[in-house]
Predict the 3D structure of the following.
Amino acid sequence: MSPNVEMIVRLTCFLSVLIAMAAWELFAPRRALKVAKTSRWFSNLALIVINTIAARIVLPITAVAAALFAESREWGVLYLIDWPLWVEIFLAVLVFDLAIYLQHVMFHAVPLFWRLHKVHHADLDFDVTTGLRFHTLEILLSALIKLAVVVVLGPPAIAVVVFEVLLNATSMFNHSNVSLPVWLDRIVRCVVVTPDMHRVHHSVIRRETNSNFGFNLPWWDFLLGTYRDQPELGHDKMDIGLNEYRDQSQVEQLPGMLLLPFHKTPDSTAIGRDDAPQADSDS
């Protein structure tokens, strides 16, 4: 697959899902938003533009290009056995998704990584743009991890494209402020992470923040003991974000978002810290 085709496929899927979820949020919102949508969307979407440009400048090779390179050298675990293409694609998507899950847990557990990742969690509202809001340094680090997985696994290039499209689409879906009937949510979350499932992960209550790490497949949370069914206070009353960061000028404006990892704060990690006795429910 050529770089131009890859770009067109990914951009088309990205815009289609973004527009679809934004429309769904408009006509069937799950929660009332607390922050002006215009300013939040401008900052979150501007961060995406910065991240895309930075990745193109800093990283000379994409995950798809790395897969093509590994294929030309016959590198990777998948080259040890001659499996049908569809099996390799399925296995590659599973391995990539597990890697993203483990990376997510690591970003909560390692102080330096949490400094970067808390930009994502500091969003005071939860909607489709939250699923795209990550600090530039986190995006670059995540890309390096993905490249390492590609070299070790040796997946077909088409598998990388499929996973990238799925991850981007499901991230926007499960961060969206959309309403699903309870019975339908129960069914869907057996296959893919739903907004109600992932919203728990954005609770200010730390033990809820450290649950539901999956972005795409929910199975790793089920199997590895990090699944939490519902937020303690319910979806309508739960507070979104981080207790340490409630100033809109700091967490909802682009300069503050970019500088957030460099602030000296007591929250060295998300994992391993107890919740404040009452602050979580009163913030």
